[in-house]
């Protein structure tokens, strides 16, 4: 009994001791958890305070750099840095060392804007670069860090983004103000003069590209307050969603300008002349052009470029209650030979309106082809043809380009075909296939500045680059180029038959001079001599219908361009 009681006492004591130890350990664990939580709260508070202090110090540093980034202050700072390493510098060495960047411009806001002065003009469109390319551009051009945000000018466009570039918003500008007039436009006896003023102005483009980014997803919205020759009108240039997560590929859906022809693939901020050749404008408007509903993609490499889009109607052109247009575009281009001094470009573009819009209940689908004499200072179009009973429209043609050092030569040729519909009961004029043609050849030479180069992202030639912004005191004048072009567009078809189309034939000789004081501004001066045949003249009941077709004339126009 004694042994049994002793054993029971021992076991009971062990259980009580174990229970006591467990409660003590549990209490200690709870106390530790409370201490850890308190430390975490304290660390978070310290982190917030340090983040605020770092932000304040960065702002003070930027202000200090803006006021003290002089050669003397820079040399003094270089000597202090060297002395702290135990390696004193002579004054001659200190003056050659730039604190704050390899270019010697520092890292303040003024420095970033100076860097943004150099290069080619920014695009007139929204951003479509990949997240990787965006971060690389930000790092290359440098950015100002402000409390977890970056402010910079990647590609010359003001941009605000998160430190990792995951979120970003940019806003740009494409402002083209034209001024000029026409000479030698007096009409023949009995004809109307048309809209050909001796001196007039036109806000050709006033686009404000706004881009929103989340990683590789980009939304672009670009209103245009200076559409075409209708000075003062407002419309939409683009509103689309883009995905750029695949290598060198951009997928786009929304209102967009599908890329077709070499000239159409260039940004308007980079044109050699103020306007595209008439044939490329007519071709692109078949099923592309500005603010066209589009779904498609482009892909590019160092030696080739390819893109294709399915398209619908243009913005604001939906035919309520009737059929809207459907079509498509395709373009492929390559560089079979590339060297330091030589670039060879070849390509082909094709476009088609599978079904043209039905605008009225009559179902008499028609298409109008018309163009100004390659200057948008008039609403009168000497070149104009309307084709009725249209089934479909297509166009295709080759592109050729060649660069040798500072000289760029290029040209394109296009054939336009119009097939007729099933309006078998219509007149003879509504029957038979219609064919139009056109072509151009252009030459460009960069007198000073960085010469034109090949832009692999556009599959086209880019504008000259500015190595040094305009600074006459130091012998810097920006970039200057001279251009010339010859273009022909023939909208006559089947002239000797009952279904003749008499749209006229237009020939334009052009010459231009472009000066870029920096990448953001350009001043253009163009001279055009145009010749339009009078094949469009018709008669009714033996009485001539005199009009404005069949005219020779000249235009002189200048453009002020701002691009961000």
From TrEMBL:
Keyword Coiled coil: yes
Signal peptide bounds: 1-27
Segments for region (Disordered): 66-96
Organism domain of life: Bacteria
Chain coiled-coil ranges: 29-56
This protein's UniProt keywords: Coiled coil, Signal
Biased composition, class Low complexity, residue ranges: 67-83
Any Pfam family the entry gives: Porin_O_P
Keyword Membrane: no
Gene3D superfamilies for the chain: Porin
Name used for this protein in its record: Phosphate-selective porin O and P
Lineage, broadest ranks: Bacteria, Pseudomonadati, Pseudomonadota, Alphaproteobacteria, Acetobacterales
């Amino acid at each position: 009994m004694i042994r049994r009681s002793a054993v029971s006492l021992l076991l009971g004591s062990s259980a009580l001791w174990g229970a006591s130890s467990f409660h003590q350990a549990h209490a200690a664990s709870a106390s530790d958890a409370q201490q850890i939580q308190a430390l975490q709260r304290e660390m978070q508070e310290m982190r917030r305070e340090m983040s605020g202090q770092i932000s304040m110090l960065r702002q003070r540093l930027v202000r200090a750099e803006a006021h003290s980034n002089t050669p003397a202050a820079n040399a003094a700072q270089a000597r202090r840095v060297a002395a702290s390493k135990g390696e004193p510098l002579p004054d001659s060495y200190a003056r050659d060392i730039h604190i704050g960047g390899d270019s010697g411009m520092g890292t303040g806001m003024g420095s970033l804007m100076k860097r943004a002065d150099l290069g080619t003009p920014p695009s007139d469109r929204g951003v479509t670069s990949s997240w990787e390319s965006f971060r690389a551009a930000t790092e290359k051009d440098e950015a100002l860090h402000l409390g977890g945000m970056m402010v910079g000018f990647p590609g010359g466009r003001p941009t605000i983004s998160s430190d990792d570039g995951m979120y970003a918003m940019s806003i740009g500008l494409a402002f083209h103000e034209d001024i000029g007039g026409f000479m030698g436009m007096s009409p023949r006896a009995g004809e109307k003069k048309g809209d050909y003023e001796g001196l007039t102005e036109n806000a050709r483009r006033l686009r404000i590209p706004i881009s929103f980014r989340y990683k590789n997803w980009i939304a672009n919205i670009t209103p245009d307050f200076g559409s075409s020759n209708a000075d003062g009108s407002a419309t939409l240039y683009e509103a689309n969603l883009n995905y750029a997560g695949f290598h060198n590929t951009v997928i786009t859906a929304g209102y967009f300008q599908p890329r077709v022809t070499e000239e159409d693939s260039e940004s308007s901020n980079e044109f050699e002349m103020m306007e595209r050749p008439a044939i490329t404008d007519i071709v692109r408007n078949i099923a592309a052009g500005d603010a066209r509903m589009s779904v498609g993609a482009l892909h590019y490499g160092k030696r080739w470029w390819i893109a294709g889009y399915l398209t619908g109607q243009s913005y604001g052109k939906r035919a309520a209650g009737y059929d809207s247009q459907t079509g498509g575009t395709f373009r492929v281009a390559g560089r079979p030979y590339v060297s330091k001094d030589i670039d060879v470009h070849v390509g082909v573009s094709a476009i088609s309106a599978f079904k043209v819009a039905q605008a009225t209940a009559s179902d008499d689908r028609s298409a109008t082809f018309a163009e100004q004499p390659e200057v948008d200072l008039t609403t009168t179009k000497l070149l104009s043809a309307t084709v009725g009973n249209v089934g479909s429209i297509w166009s295709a043609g080759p592109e050729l380009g060649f660069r040798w050092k500072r000289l760029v030569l290029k040209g394109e040729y296009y054939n336009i075909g119009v097939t007729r519909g099933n309006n078998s009961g219509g007149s003879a004029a509504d029957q038979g296939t219609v064919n139009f043609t056109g072509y151009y050849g252009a030459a460009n030479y960069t007198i000073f500045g960085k010469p034109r180069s090949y832009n692999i992202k556009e599959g086209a030639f880019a504008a000259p680059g500015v190595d040094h912004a305009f600074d006459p005191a130091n012998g810097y004048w920006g970039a200057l180029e001279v251009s010339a072009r010859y273009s022909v567009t023939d909208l006559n078809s089947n002239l000797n038959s009952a279904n003749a189309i008499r749209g006229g034939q237009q020939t334009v000789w052009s010459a231009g001079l472009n000066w870029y004081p920096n990448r953001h501004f350009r001043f253009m001066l163009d001279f055009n001599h145009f010749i339009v045949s009078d094949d469009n003249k018709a008669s009714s009941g033996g009485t001539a219908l005199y009009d404005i077709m069949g005219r020779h004339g000249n235009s002189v126009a200048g453009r002020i361009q701002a691009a961000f």
